[in-house]
Design a protein that fits this description.
The chain is an alpha+beta fold. The protein contains two helices and two strands. It has a two-stranded parallel sheet with strand order 1-2.
Length: about 80
């Protein structure tokens, strides 16, 4: 028996802060779910700026523990 799973790819431009990025993606995820998405894929580093071109300690504050970090827990709800 064939089972179809609907997926969504979510990507957003940097808003300037982590909290608003998380809220923006939660909103996108809700909208995708309303359209039937069962699996959602977020861009890498979705809640912060893309900083992989440089190694700078100022970006260390964006790190969180996994699986018990605050963003992981929020997205599980």
């Amino acid at each position: 028996m064939t089972r179809i799973i609907k997926g969504a790819l979510l990507q957003a431009t940097w808003t300037g802060d982590k909290d608003s990025m998380i809220e923006k993606h939660i909103d996108y995820a809700r909208k995708a779910a309303e359209q039937g998405a069962q699996v959602m894929c977020f861009q890498e580093l979705f809640y912060g700026p893309y900083f992989c071109q440089v190694q700078d300690r100022k970006y260390y504050s964006y790190t969180e523990p996994i699986p018990d970090g605050p963003t992981t827990e929020k997205m599980q709800k």
